[in-house]
Amino acid sequence: MLTKRIVPCLDIKEGRTVKGVNFVDLRDAGDPVELAAIYSATGADELVFLDITATVEKRKTLVDLVTRVAQKINIPFTVGGGISSIDDVSALLNAGADKVSINSAAVKDPQLINRLAATFGSQCIVIAIDSRKIQGKHIVHTHGGRKPTHLETIAWAQEVQDRGAGEILLTSMDHDGTKAGFANKLTALLSTKLTIPLIASGGGGTIDHFKRVFTDGKADAALAASIFHFKEIEILDLKKELQEAAIPMRL
User: Fold this and answer.
1) Residue 31 is among the residues annotated as catalytic for this protein
2) Is position 188 within any domain?
3) Catalytic pick from 11, 51, 88, 176?
4) Helix axes 86-95 and 111-120, enclosed angle (nearest 10)
């Protein structure tokens, strides 16, 4: 069985790491370069860096910050926020990113996924899906979770896989920042329908939540932010407990 991954997420606004609840009420969580170096040294399997207001503010991800983070770490590094073209992806990969995460631009132009996968390889292309339940349906949202779309989460996930995405980062907006547990039913449903890896995001608050997202939720990786930023759970302790629960981990 493939090892499961623990992935800290750096949500970036104005060059600082921030964290909120349900995508709002943001508070400062520290310097992203310092945090990235700590996570790289203390057992994180990968790192995700999301410039959370880039699309809303109609600007590009902070390439200089990506460069400085990449210089401090030796684990795979995914960058997202404001990415909408081959040139954007090229700039970020050249700055040191291993993968890019795309949400709003892929919804606006699904063919972008095909073009990026053909140019850079599927292994570089992560599609982020921000999902919220509306009238009983899981609906894709864009622009940092601000705008609902006409797309249903499961159908969209299958489409992006068909178009060449190499991985999906699924964030349950209903669970985000609540520390009440991941969206395991939705995660499991998606995981059983997809052949590409699925990263679960939104709601991780305890070690048991991580156990459940890997067992009940069938996730390939679990992403969290504030519990790591504010040292509520140490990554190495988490991974040891997961391994003791027969969930394969890289220690």
Assistant:
1) no
2) yes
3) 11
4) 40
